[in-house]
Design goal:
mainly alpha; two-stranded antiparallel sheet; 6 helices; 2 strands; flat
């Protein structure tokens, strides 16, 4: 099966050179350059924000309740439940409206109750007056002076 020109090897070398050229790598999925949001962001639901507002109003009206921060986490949840229950009893009309909004939002009450968290600890912004300035900071995992 030699070619009439006698260059049977030429075709083999041509196909060999074509196969030896590097093929481009398959396109890889684009990765985000920013990190994903913190896990706490899923707690900022409309329902939790309303509950947080109720708790803040309760505590601002009673500044002598500074002992809240010294309670154990389980005790804080019990106190939080009690404050929210009392508020719901006092304002049943608002409670009905909130329940309707939750139904429209797609999240069931069972899911909300399963994810009971300490709202004041999780949703309250950090206290900037508690931060001690020492002239150092961390940037991208590196200590900078």
């Amino acid at each position: 099966m030699a070619s009439p020109s006698g260059s049977g090897r030429g075709r083999a070398s041509e196909s060999k050179s074509q196969t030896s050229t590097p093929t481009p790598a398959p396109a890889q999925a684009l990765q985000a350059i920013f990190p994903p949001p913190a896990a706490v962001h899923r707690h900022f639901t409309p329902s939790n924000l309303r509950k947080f507002k109720v708790l803040c109003e309760y505590h601002h009206a009673r500044p002598e309740l500074d002992r809240w921060a010294r309670l154990e986490p389980a005790e804080r949840l019990v106190q939080q439940r009690e404050v929210l229950r009392r508020n719901a009893e006092n304002d049943e009309a608002v409670t009905r409206v909130l329940e309707e909004e939750e139904e429209q939002g797609g999240r069931s009450r069972a899911q909300e109750e399963d994810e009971e968290i300490d709202l004041l600890a999780q949703l309250d912004p950090p206290r900037l007056d508690w931060i001690e300035q020492d002239g150092h900071y961390w940037c991208w995992g590196q200590f900078v002076q």
